Amino acid sequence: MKHFYFTIALFSSISVSQAQGVATATLEQNNVRAHIADNGFLFNDVLNDQSGYIVPRQEGTGAMFGLNINYTAKDPNETVHFSKSLYGISVWSGGPVRDNYNVSVTPSISCVSRTEISNHIHSYTSPSYTIPGSLLEWPAHGDQENGETWLLAPFEDIDGDGIYAPQNGDFPCIKGDRACYIIMNDQKPDLQTEGLPSVGLETHIMVYQLNSASEAVNNATFMEVKTFNRSETDYTDFVLGILMDGDIGGFDDDFIGTDAESSTLYFYNGRTIDQGFMGVTGYGANPPALGLTALNEDLSYTNYPFQSNWTVMELYNLFNGRNPDGTPLEHDYVFDGYYETGRTEITTGGVPGDRRGFASYTPVDLPSGESHSSSFVISYGKSSMYEHLFSPVESLITNIYELKDAYSQISSSCDEVLSNGKPISKKEIALFPNPASDKLTIHTPSNGEFILLNALGQKVYEGKLTSPATYLSVSHLSEGMYFAKISTDTEDRTIKWIKE
């Protein structure tokens, strides 16, 4: 065991740490159980002080103790700013940047499934439908009276009024089959880093999973990290730095490495059999590898200096291509060879042990009021024919390229609409819900016109269509069958519609 937090459960998979004020949730939509938190320390089970990334989740063995989100930057005076997370010792707290940090009505973690959203789109006009709490609690808006930004988590605004109202058909924009949305900030006064000022950030993280026939996708977790500069300072050399503690089962027998071509920091077992350690269950024979891959960023540096009590300035150096004492790294990437070629822990005679890796990404400018987005996937590899210590890494790298291809095809719930519960591209004409009682939505790829005809062919309603969506009140129409004649610049369609 490495660290300890006392946590009490509030409801379902959401809990709040009594000692730390940390909200947590569990995402387990596919073959992974991923524990998340709003304090910058993800994938750690704070309740039991153990690995919070379990794969395969049915077997209960952990592959990662946790992942820490850090940012460094320089202001116009060349002063270094640092927003730190180090095993729960963190400047990050839940919720948006605000005036009074003793008060917040905005949920810092909200989880929702694609099924709930699809059902809502199809059923929200039905009198018998009850909107699930996951949609009602979606943190679309901040508390402006407490200085929070109005627009927070993304949503589809069905009626175009700028207000999230699921009772009017609005719904969250997520990726994957289930997602958890985290909002955290680095500005709570009692959590400021000693020695260096924090950056002034509000970070939104969407952690999501997909059910898939692909084993690589089913064993993966994706993560979108969007960080807003809520300060009044224009920053240069803004760097995202991640400290990943990859424990492949037992944490005393691991190796670490980098695949720079795919922007991946990875961990694998340094022995052919992972026997576990200090009560932690091992994977046994044929242990896997686990990797963190940047999907839209290039790796700048990876590093592995073992300890856990770095000073703030040492951490800053580690995330900016230097050793803790400020001297340059001998190599940009830690153990970036491949099996028996180049530098690996195998070729250099490494001794298996506890591994913690630093990864930092391309510096950018971040002006006041702007944001920066990063996308990642946590991948898992296990060899079907275990021949040597590097076999699971070979499988991992193969899976990474499959995951990158899958990522390029992942859509948001707001990239599509549904008609009768079936996905329809926004490039197509769609009318929903069908049947409907009082509200009707017509999605079109371009502007146009519509005419509603009753079963006798009589015109009962007509008007203009504005892309991408036109919202009609049809409560005044009699129950029965109608035909919607829809004409746009690119297509004409007639759709049968039932008023109930």
From TrEMBL:
Endpoints of the signal sequence: 1-19
Keyword rRNA-binding: no
Coiled coil segments of this chain: none
UniProt keyword list: Signal
Keyword Signal on entry: yes
Domain Secretion system C-terminal sorting: residue ranges: 431-495
InterPro entries attached to this UniProt entry: Secre_tail
Superkingdom of origin organism: Bacteria
Classification via Pfam families: Por_Secre_tail (PF18962)
Record protein name field: Secretion system C-terminal sorting domain-containing protein
